[in-house]
Amino acid sequence: MHRLAPRPTFVGSAFLASAALTVAFLPSSATATDDDRHHEGTRTLAYLNSLNNSGATGMASATVKGRKVRVKVKAHGLAKGLPHAQHIHFGEQARNECPTAGKDDKNGDFRIETGEGQPAYGPIRVSLTKRGDTSPASGLAVNRFPTAPQGHVHYKRSTHTKQDVARAIRRGEAVVVIHGIDYNGNGTYDFKSAGKSDLDPNLPSEATDPAVCGVLHR
Ligand SMILES: [Cu+2]
Q: How many Å lie between the centroid of ligand 1 and the Cα of residue 208?
């Protein structure tokens, strides 16, 4: 029964708080002939490329329906066994792209710090945590992000976001960023190789520097 499938098919969910309820009460005939693209939402896909010579790569997808967004992230080559903050970034004023050393390394230290990336990808709008809050307030909730035991992140979650973020994803303007680079390869994030984070001086820059980035395109 497709009504019980993990990707529920339904219409008009934008105004209903719970997708589960919608699925439960919607007659299956209502969607049987519906256009896939309509009832599954708008799909976007990002190729995640290395930043800061992290060597990590991956892919991400986001499917938006109303304010509901279903996100999948697969990445590999990340620092092993360390938490990797991951977000959807978007800024009305941003270039809606990934930063480059040429344009964005303003202080000329051959690294792109998180803040230096903001003119390109904008601020954090969705925190891709494993559990709990997904708002920007959880942007550095280190204990709720994937830890990449083998350097891999396999992540899947559905959440709700603000309308402008949902719209940005649909337009292909949102950017997925995974943070965290162990520059000196000593198995931990510390202050030795890159100092303090420009985002939070209590955290090492290694914990917050962007490791991969990709624009979610339709
Ligand atoms: Cu981020």
A: 8
Give me ligand 1 centre to Cα 87, in Å: 4
Cα 14 off chain centre by: 21
Q: Which residues surround ligand 1, an ion (CB under 5 A)?
A: 87, 177
**Per-residue pLDDT of the chain in tens (218 residues, 90 and over written 9):** 344 344 433 333 333 333 333 333 344 333 433 344 445 899 999 999 999 999 999 999 999 999 999 999 999 999 999 999 999 999 999 999 999 999 999 999 999 999 999 999 999 999 999 999 999 999 999 899 999 999 999 999 999 999 999 999 999 999 999 999 999 999 999 999 999 999 899 999 999 999 999 999 99
Per the structure, the complete domain to which residue 69 belongs is given by 41-215
The rounded Å distance from CA 59 to ligand 1 centre is 15
In angstroms, the first-to-last Cα distance of the chain is 29
Question: In this structure, are residues 101 and 166 in contact, taking their beta carbons and an 8 Å threshold?
Answer: no
- Note whether 98 and 15 are same-domain residues: no
Angle at 102 between CA 96 and CA 108, to 5 degrees: 115
Judgement on whether residues 164 and 207 belong to the same structural domain of the protein? yes
